[in-house]
């Protein structure tokens, strides 16, 4: 497995087709709490859907358009984190992620997000990373705050969630800010 070690407990890895069943199982076990903020979850009905998603992720990676990584905690698949929509022209990307309920409250997502931002700036040479989350999604807002990202504003009715449109908070950090921000977070 090609991976990026964060510490002895946590690593990020490029998904393999053989991870499809485990990824489906994680989504299926967490369907009730994931589907509210991630409406695509309702369209994932079997492991083949995740194998197909991994193929798409790998194709977008090969094209330089995205970086989707699985989060492994103590050897168990815990979630997924991505640099979505890598825009080479503007040298920016946004972060997306999810984490299984049983893995929450351990700082895993903050560490994974810090690592993928490091990758974005150091390996991809990007200039700006943003994170968008529902205004009422306190855990995701807290991840952005713990990372020291700048709050850029609230976009009214920007996100469509399971029960309709929601306001979206947007956070961002620039490459030239990251070293100082990372040192303080």
Automatic annotation (TrEMBL):
Q: Name one Pfam family in it.
A: Acetyltransf_3
Name of the featured protein: GNAT family N-acetyltransferase
Leader peptide range in chain numbering? none
Matches recorded under SUPFAM superfamilies? Acyl-CoA N-acyltransferases (Nat)
Q: Where are the coiled-coil regions?
A: none
Which parts of the sequence belong to the N-acetyltransferase domain? Answer: 12-176
From which domain of life does this come? Bacteria
Recorded hits in Gene3D superfamilies, A to Z, give: 3.40.630.30
Give the matching InterPro entries: Acyl_CoA_acyltransferase (IPR016181), GNAT_dom (IPR000182), Ribosomal_N-acetyltransferase (IPR051908)
């Amino acid at each position: 497995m090609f991976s990026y070690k964060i510490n002895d407990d946590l690593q990020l890895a490029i998904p393999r087709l053989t991870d499809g069943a485990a990824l489906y199982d994680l989504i299926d076990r967490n369907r009730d709490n994931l589907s509210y903020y991630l409406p695509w979850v309702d369209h994932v009905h079997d492991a083949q859907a995740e194998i197909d998603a991994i193929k798409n992720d790998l194709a977008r990676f090969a094209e330089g358009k995205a970086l989707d990584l699985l989060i492994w905690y103590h050897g168990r698949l815990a979630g997924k984190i991505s640099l979505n929509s890598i825009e080479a022209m503007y040298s920016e990307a946004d972060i997306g992620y999810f984490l299984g309920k049983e893995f929450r409250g351990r700082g895993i997502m903050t560490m994974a997000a810090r690592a993928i931002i490091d990758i974005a700036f150091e390996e991809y040479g990007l200039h700006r990373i943003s994170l968008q989350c529902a205004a009422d999604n306190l855990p995701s807002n807290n991840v952005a705050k713990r990372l020291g990202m700048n709050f850029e504003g609230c976009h009214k009715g920007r996100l469509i969630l399971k029960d309709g449109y929601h306001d979206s908070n947007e956070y961002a950090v620039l490459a030239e800010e990251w070293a100082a921000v990372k040192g303080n977070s």
